[in-house]
Amino acid sequence: MSQTLYKTPFSRAYWKDAVADSKKLRTLIFSALMVAACVALGRIPSIVVGAGGIKISWGFLGRALCALVGGPVNALLFGFVEDTVGYFMNPDGGYNPFYIFTTMLGVFTYALFLYRAEVTVLRVFLAKLFTNIQNVFLQSLGSYLWYSSKGYWVLVGERAIKNAVMLPIQTIMLVALFAALLPILHRMGFLPNQAGRLKLWKRPERFPKQAPNEEKSAP
Fold first, then answer.
1. In the structure, how many helices (H) and strands (E) does the chain have?
2. DSSP bridge partners of 37
């Protein structure tokens, strides 16, 4: 499958491809499978980190994978469906519609960094960093408006500590997942060849070698 890679999402062609991919049947089927995967991952016990009881769940793995394949337009639909289905299949506390928005934005952010791009460890880290920053401020706002008796900035402080601890662990989990699945997704036709494997870093472009008659200065 011939697919164009983009350095940034700031082009008309990028969004044209994103719209086209969001309409493909295989993208919708893959997204449905990722919804089911997120629901299943939500039933796996969370990882508890440290004495503070900070928990790292697993659902972000399915969201990032769907964003990588489906792109930012599909990500918005996926985020809405996944959050709604996930809650009603595995309810935890009262229903907060604000979290639908935060889930949609999070998957959308993953897609901006990963879709139609050469996937590097740095890109994975930045995608997780920006989604965690969103979690700190937006999920705190949702909790403040719907549930909590604590002040907003108290919630922000608590979530900032939690997300700072989670960031390196979640990044490593995503890197391991992508390292295993990128070649498989490429062989299945979901990813272009250049994005078919995880790169540790982006190699700098080398200048072409000069021809022998160009190396010497003119007399």
1. 8, 2
2. none
Residue (of 199, 201, 203) closest to 183 by Cα position: 199
Candidates 172, 166, 98; CA nearest to 137 is 98
The pLDDT of 6-31, averaged and rounded, is: 95
Contact assessment for residue 156 and residue 140, using Cβ atoms and an 8 Å cutoff: yes
Q: What is the rounded CA–CA span in Å between residue 123 and residue 109?
A: 11
pLDDT at 12: 95
145 phi-psi bin (left φ>0, alpha ψ -120 to 50, beta other):
alpha
3-state SS, one letter per residue, for 16-44: HHHHHHHCCHHHHHHHHHHHHHHHHHCCC
**Packing angle between helix 25-41 and helix 59-89, nearest 10 degrees?**
80
d(CA 183, CA 175): 13
Helix (H, G, I), strand (E, B) or coil at 80: helix
Query: Which pLDDT belongs to residue 193?
Result: 75
pTM over 0.85: yes
Contact indicator for 136, 159 with CB cutoff of 8 Å: yes
DSSP letters for 193-219? GGGSS-BSS-PPPPPPPPPHHHHSPP-
Tokens of 80: 């809405």
**Which tens digits make up the pLDDT trace of 135-174?**
999 989 988 888 777 899 999 999 999 999 999 999 999 9
The DSSP annotation for 42-72 comes to TTSPPEEETTTTEEE-SHHHHHHHHHHHHHH
- CA pair distance 103, 115, nearest whole angstrom: 17
